[in-house]
Amino acid sequence: MASSVAGARAEFTTQSVSTNEPVVSVDWLHANLKEPDLKVLDASWYMPDEQRNPIQEYQVAHIPGALFFDVDGISDRTTKLPHMLPSEEAFAAAVSALGIENKNDLVVYDGKGIFSAARVWWMFRVFGHDRVWVLDGGLPSWRASGYDVESSASGDAILKASAASEAIEKVYKGQAVGPTTFQTKFQPHLVWTIDQVRKNVEERTHEHIDARSKARFDGTALEPRKGIRSGHVPGSKCVPFPQLLDSSETLLPADKLKNRFDEAGISLESPIVTSCGTGVTACILALGLHRLGKPEVAVYDGSWTEWGAQSDTPIDTSS
Q: Exposure of 225 by Cβ count < 10 A (0-12 exposed, 13-18 middle, 19+ buried)?
């Protein structure tokens, strides 16, 4: 076993892990953690009703050397919708403040297993950075494997997280920011707007998959956010995101993933757009579809929080 881990490290090059596969194992990360061009991001984020503070949890325990990526902070400041995709300039300023460069290979994890990390994986891909992976099983799998965690006694990563948030504020206020070490290359086909979803309701060019629970999709459960109608986008289909994960919160193998989409009546031959409540768990669907050889899946960023709050968007419910 020791020799295979050493071998994994010895063979590490920027090409040693394929971008065709969207996740890496905790064993792979442990073997490659000290590689100079590898950066690890803690992208933990939780639903408001969970009352968990991701930055506090990060300070208590994180993978050694990991930076903190603030999902709510690195976002568009011009909208009231939660954690929407920032502008190219704002994203570049924020990740540069974190010390990330285009040459870096990135591994993103979260405190649940696979939850918010998929969102940050998608964000980097939207801005043209393909060498990014989600840690399969996240921090729970890392700890279950007996690997060390550290607490942030130095505070350096906390300062960088604050600097990233400040950099975003400056960009949206039109103020100068520090030097940019990360160049973006926007991939518009990976992110959809409400107008594209409206058009797709009429034209049905894309299969639309919703990652919310069946009860929310059917309109039998109230939405967690106030003022948002219940139901789903007409023509969309429901694949609740937990169906793509096993009991240890790792991504299912390809054959089981395919079964999940087949059972929902989704053709993998068609182009696909995904959505959820606020654009976080929709990215888990995109992650699973990536494993099935569909890397060009779009995510509707505003998702149900935007669609359900409008007075003129069509909504279906299932009784």
A: middle
**Residue type, position 217, single letter:** F
**Which two tokens mark 215?**
């009860």
Strands (E), 21-143: 23-24, 38-42, 67-68, 105-109, 132-135
Catalytic residue list contains 238: no
pLDDT tens-digit map of 148-177: 999 975 678 889 999 999 999 999 999 999
Residue with tokens 């518009």, as numbered in its chain:
188
**Residues whose CB falls within 8 Å of the CB of residue 212, separated by 6 or more in sequence, listed in order:** 232, 238, 240, 276, 277, 281, 304
List pLDDT tens digits, range 234-288: 999 999 999 999 999 999 999 999 999 999 999 999 999 999 999 999 999 999 9
Q: What is the pTM of this model?
A: 0.94
Q: Which of 90, 120, 276, 284 is catalytic?
A: 276
